[in-house]
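Bit of a strange request maybe. I'm writing a small parser for structure token strings and I need a real example to test against, not something I typed by hand. Could someone generate the tokens for this chain?
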Amino acid sequence: MYGYQIAKLIEAYDESVQMMKQGALYPVLRSLENSGLLESHVDPSVSGPPRRYYTITKAGQETLEAWARIWNQTKAFVDTLLEENNHV
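Reply from user aminoacidic:
Good idea to test on real output. This should exercise your parser:
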């Protein structure tokens, strides 16, 4: 996807997410690319400036899976604490 598509996808998923305005999104994409988690290429556009398309790398997929495991462990821990406090 190119940056604008990513921003629109995030907005469609949750309109309350204001941090993913394009001005904030592009530095994040560049940082992820510089870290080797994304790669990009530029294609010409018939209806405007060239578009930079981003693809997740193998390292990016592995990192995403690791972050998801950590998030799920953290969520389970917090859910357990909240559950225990509701029974007090």
